[in-house]
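Hello, quick one for you while I still have it in my head. A protein chain has come my way and I'm curious about its shape. Can you walk me through what the tokens say about the fold? No rush at all, and the record is pasted right below.
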Amino acid sequence: MATAKVKAIVSTFNEVATIETMIALDKAHGTAKHAAMEVLAVEFGKAALMPTKLGGLSRNSFKDGANLETMQKASINVSLTLEKAQCLARIIGAINAARPTLWQNYQECYFGVDVVRPTTKKVETDKTPEQVEFTKAQEMKAKTLEQKKEFSKLAKLAGAQAILLAAQGDSAKAKKALDAEKELKAEAKKLGDQAKICADKMTKIKAAHKDAALYDQMQTIVEKLKIRFGDKDCFDMTIEEILTALAG
């Protein structure tokens, strides 16, 4: 019954009235927008209303200055006559002129947000043992450097306190403050050494990964040379022969 009503409306389809109605429905409930899109679907077909990347009408093909061949090709792609495709392009253009994302809102109401703007899930790949070790070393380095920073601050405070106490003539407390400063500095140094160990480990892992990648590249080169020259020793080849093989 609803479809019959829509067809009855479309039988007297009016481009200007349609544009005015759809712009007026900007803030309306999704149901109203869906109904407005249903009118367009009957007039132009659902496929033409889809986003361009999903096979809908290419609106760029109908921009000012577009040549006839481009517009005809875009019309054929959505199974519309040139006249109807131009009409739909004008409607979409006018709707977007009212609000840049209004036409997209209509598409989302009609086809669904997941269809119009599908979210691509990031594929989580399993980390190699080397990558796991690298991440651990990286996290440990950051943690120890942060701790070193805190101990260094405390050491400076203890040193300043020792100077102040000595100036006040309280040598006993000044000595305790100096001892605390030494202990804090020693702890900060220990943490700095741990951070350096982590950094060295990260460097070794990077170097090993680089060596492995280089080895794979060399293996690829050797395979190319074998295909070109069979079992001939690559060390007996001329530079010209090697370059010719690699170019192929």
The two ends are 68 Å apart (CA to CA).
